[in-house]
Write the structure tokens for this entry.
Amino acid sequence: MTPRLDAVSLTTADLPASLAFYRRLGLDIPTGAESAPHVEVVLPGGGRLLWDTEDVVRSFDPDWAPPPSGGDRLGLAFLCDSPAEVDADLTGAGHRGHLKPWDAVWGQRYAVVLDPDGCAVSLFAPADA
């Protein structure tokens, strides 16, 4: 068996809010996807990002409950074209900042915001881009 990572899946309490957040990051999410119980987008490079509503997950497992808040369980990282894109103000659009933009010792401009479900989303770019 040789498994390969094909997709990352998010379970969301508020699908429209989650999709709007990821659209602001440049993902090509189809118009009208907010009304679907399951959404998939193909990312550059061929991987996929998937969303399911909590209700869909409960339909398969009635005992399922969202994980307790606190601590990062999943982190997504988006490569930006420039440090200016890292510094783009997602918090001004109502999203919670987690770590303000900084110049990391490994040569990247880096920031972390939280999506509507509290998942950490890293934004980074080469510092000299």
Q: What stands out?
A: The mean pLDDT is 84. The chain has three helices and seven strands. The longest strand covers residues 96-103. The beta strands are 7-12, 38-42, 48-53, 75-79, 96-103, 108-114, 120-126.
